[in-house]
Inverse folding.
């Protein structure tokens, strides 16, 4: 039983949004909002572990987000790489499994390698599962499912 005697949800899904507005309100650059977004995720993960939530899905970067100014996109990529680097050991220590869902081909080779390593390292963990949707789009998801189905039929 979780805090307040109310059972925790099995699966929580969050769309990471409002980072820009958060920063604007504080007269800070948008990037500071994205950094605060990552920090908020750290706090949410800690609460999910404490409450025994099974799955946390984070919609972090959609396929439409590539259309943002290139400076913002590259800062987001740096932030993603940094978060992976800093958090992977902590995930392992806390028995957390990390999965990145989405079309990863568009990410840099270095980032793809980091993603693979983090997934590989944490794949047998049995605690919280974190799904990070990155370059994820509804169309892509449907195409993927149809392709997999076609392979099975073949
Ligand atoms: C939306 O806020 C948030 C994002 C587009 C990016 C969130 C992801 C990270 C901070 C981590 C980096 C992760 C990856 C996978 C690259 P917004 O900018 O739309 O805020 P607004 O609606 O207030 O303008």
């Amino acid at each position: 039983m979780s805090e307040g005697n109310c059972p925790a949800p099995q699966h929580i899904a969050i769309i990471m949004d409002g980072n820009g507005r958060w920063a604007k309100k504080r007269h800070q650059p948008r990037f500071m909002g994205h950094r605060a977004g990552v920090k908020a995720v750290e706090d949410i993960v800690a609460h999910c572990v404490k409450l025994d939530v099974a799955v946390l899905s984070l919609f972090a970067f959609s396929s439409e987000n590539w259309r943002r100014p290139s400076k913002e996109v590259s800062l987001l990529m740096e932030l993603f790489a940094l978060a992976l680097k800093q958090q992977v050991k902590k995930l392992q220590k806390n028995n957390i499994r990390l999965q990145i869902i989405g079309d990863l081909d568009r990410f840099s080779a270095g980032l793809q390698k980091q993603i693979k390593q983090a997934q590989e390292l944490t794949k047998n963990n049995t605690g919280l599962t974190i799904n990070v949707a990155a370059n994820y789009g509804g169309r892509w998801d449907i195409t993927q499912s149809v392709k997999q189905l076609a392979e099975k039929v073949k």
Notes: The longest strand covers residues 55-62.
